[in-house]
Amino acid sequence: MIKKSLKPFRDIIALALGHLTVFKHVFKKPVTLEYPEKKLPLNDKFRGEHALVVDNEGNLLCTACGTCQRVCPSFGTIEIEKEKTEDGKFYPKNYTIDLSKCIFCGNCVQYCPFGAITMTKEYELADEKKSALKLDINTLKKNYSDSIIGERDTSKR
Fold it and tell me: Which candidate, 1, 9, 75, 142, has a CA 20 to 30 Å from the CA of 27?
């Protein structure tokens, strides 16, 4: 009988403790961000979308050696079709990366002997079409120029 009479008091105490916990957190700084409007700064070693490095004259540094293909753990992600110039140097005629297969390990960047491929800080890659995840040589060049321009713009601020 005593247990039944104490139950309302226990409930009131539990309710008061719950309200105190909520009240304690009202004045703290929020932990979450309003994602699309506010974004956290990314680490320098963040591995986002790929880009092919272009020199000042607009030429690719890639010599189509195929090292990136060989070190990629997800088979068939990188496809390279190479051709030879008149002076005997190789260049990629076609270069595609399928982001639907890529695991973003960074091996292609790390092992490239010419530093011809890099990863940008772009991570919003979702799309309705799977074909949009297949990056061709022109898109990869554009990614590099966009990321360089973006870094220069943010450093000026």
Answer: 9
